[in-house]
């Protein structure tokens, strides 16, 4: 699925991403400042989170509680090796069967082996964004 959108269309884009997703794991790729966290914040809102999600850049992971499950939002920008992910227990999160929203997944190599949604966001010259979502099995 490919979508081009502006900031005003973000709620509809988040709904479509959730509808098109084949698993609870979402991997977000894109340059710094492209809008990964902004989209994730809207996705968590659409999933029922009652307060705005925030970037886990310094904490690496934020946990948000929904009524029946948790959302784990990761930002791996600051990690330097896969070993750092193991140090904070990434394998427990990956096997938790909760919703995983992962920014900079390329920093953790091939740790994600289950089904996931590959989401790439690019900023266009006119300020809009183009999102590509590909389910991976």
Automatic annotation (TrEMBL):
Keyword Magnesium: yes
Family annotation (InterPro entries): P-loop_NTPase, T6A_TsaE
Keywords (A to Z) from UniProt: ATP-binding, Cytoplasm, Magnesium, Metal-binding, Nucleotide-binding, tRNA processing
Gene3D superfamilies listed in its UniProt record: P-loop containing nucleotide triphosphate hydrolases
Compartments it resides in: Cytoplasm
Main location group: cytoplasm
PANTHER family per UniProt: TRNA THREONYLCARBAMOYLADENOSINE BIOSYNTHESIS PROTEIN TSAE
NCBIfam families: T6A_YjeE
Family: Belongs to the TsaE family.
Listed name of the protein: tRNA threonylcarbamoyladenosine biosynthesis protein TsaE
Organism from which the protein derives: Aequorivita echinoideorum
């Amino acid at each position: 699925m490919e979508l081009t959108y502006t900031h005003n269309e973000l709620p509809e884009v988040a709904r479509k991403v959730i509808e098109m997703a084949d698993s609870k794991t979402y991997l977000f790729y894109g340059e710094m400042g492209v809008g990964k966290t902004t989209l994730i914040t809207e996705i968590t809102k659409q999933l029922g989170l009652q307060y705005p999600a925030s970037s886990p850049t310094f904490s690496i992971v934020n946990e948000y509680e929904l009524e029946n499950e948790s959302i784990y939002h990761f930002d791996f920008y600051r990690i330097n090796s896969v070993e750092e992910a193991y140090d904070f227990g990434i394998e427990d999160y990956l096997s938790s069967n909760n919703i995983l929203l992962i920014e900079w997944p390329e920093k953790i190599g091939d740790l994600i082996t289950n089904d996931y949604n590959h989401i790439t966001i690019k900023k266009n010259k006119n300020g809009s964004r183009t999102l590509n979502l590909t389910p991976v099995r």
